[in-house]
Amino acid sequence: MEDIILWLKYLFLGVVQGATEPIPVSSSGHLIIAQRLMGMPQNGLSFEILTNTASLIAIVFIFREDIKKLIVGAVQYLRTRDQQYRAEFMFVLYIIIGTIPAALAAVLFKDRIEEVFASVHTVSIALLITGVALWLIRNLRGRKRDGDLSTKDAILVGLAQAVALIPGISRSGATVIASIAVGMKQETALRFSFMLYIPISLGGLVLGASDIANDPNRSELAIPYLIAFITTLIVTYFSMRWFMGVMAKGNLKYFSYYCFIAGTLLLIFL
Q1: CA separation for the pair 2, 239 (Å, rounded)
Q2: Contact predicate 153/144, CB 8 Å
Q3: In contact, 52 and 200? CB cutoff 8 Å
Q4: Residue 142 three-state SS
Q5: How far apart are CA 181 and CA 118, in angstroms?
Q6: Closest of 196, 76, 86 to residue 148, by C-alpha
Q7: DSSP run (H or E) holding 49
Q8: How many CB atoms lie within 10 A of CB 53?
Q9: Nearest Cα to 256, choosing from 136, 80, 96?
């Protein structure tokens, strides 16, 4: 019976991770809240890496055609310098530039950030901040398409992704907000945000491989981790598809309402 309860808890954690990773409400913050509500100790880095990898697989699958087009176009431009492929090459270059701030922050400060900020109180404040940011950009409709981006845009969005290392600050929220704030169209903002997610998640997987291999709970929690992984994979796919529809309609204000309500309730009751 205890095993079943444990499996259900990890199933729920998978649902939470999968549902909140693509949308601007902070998956890391919601996992902290979920574990607190279920009386679970915070899982180690290996669990975070596994669930993030599951979300990554789902998002790569959804954007597979965009990824293929960018890679083929960038390679063709490097080989031929044909201007028809320059937009793809520059988009890839801006993804690389935008990844650097978060990559450096993760390598240098991630453990310290999680040690200092991994509390429900911090998550509640961060959710309120996210809500304010979403409210401020709710009516912005940019003009910049994929081929109109600049190095400055990439750096600013990259810095926003670095700030999202703080639990409760949504990675997708921070990058989408920053992308829209610098003038990107909704579709471009969405694509750029999740293209930035791919290299940073791959880097986390590579750097954290040893943590997974050396996890003392690996054997004991193999089945719960697998349950969480599969659940995260499936739920992320449907959550991402839903969020793409929300972005197309420009309804980000509803996420700001959620962040305001959730942040306030957490401050009052937890």
Answers
A1: 30
A2: yes
A3: no
A4: coil
A5: 28
A6: 86
A7: helix 45-62
A8: 19
A9: 136
Residue 60 phi, psi (nearest 5): -60, -40
Give the C-alpha distances (Å, rounded to integers) separating 206 from 96, 199, 265: 17, 10, 37
Q: Which two tokens stand for residue 137?
A: 């950009």
What would the two tokens of residue 38 be?
């279920």
Q: What are phi and psi of 136, to 5 degrees?
A: -65, -30
pLDDT of the chain, 270 residues: tens digit per residue: 778 899 999 999 999 999 999 999 988 888 888 888 898 877 766 788 889 999 999 999 999 999 999 999 999 999 999 999 999 999 999 999 999 999 999 888 877 777 777 678 888 999 999 999 999 998 888 889 888 899 999 999 999 999 988 878 889 999 999 999 999 999 999 999 999 999 999 988 887 777 666 776 666 778 999 999 999 999 999 999 999 999 988 888 999 999 999 999 988 887
Q: How far apart are CA 59 and CA 160, in angstroms?
A: 20
Residue 264 token pair: 């306030």
pTM to 2 decimal places: 0.90
Q: How far apart are the first and last CA of the chain?
A: 29
Which value, to the nearest 10 degrees, does the dihedral of the CA atoms of residues 233, 62, 46, 21 take?
-80
Please tell me the distance from the alpha carbon of residue 91 to that of residue 73, in angstroms, as a whole number. Answer: 10
Token code pair at residue 26 = 């902070």
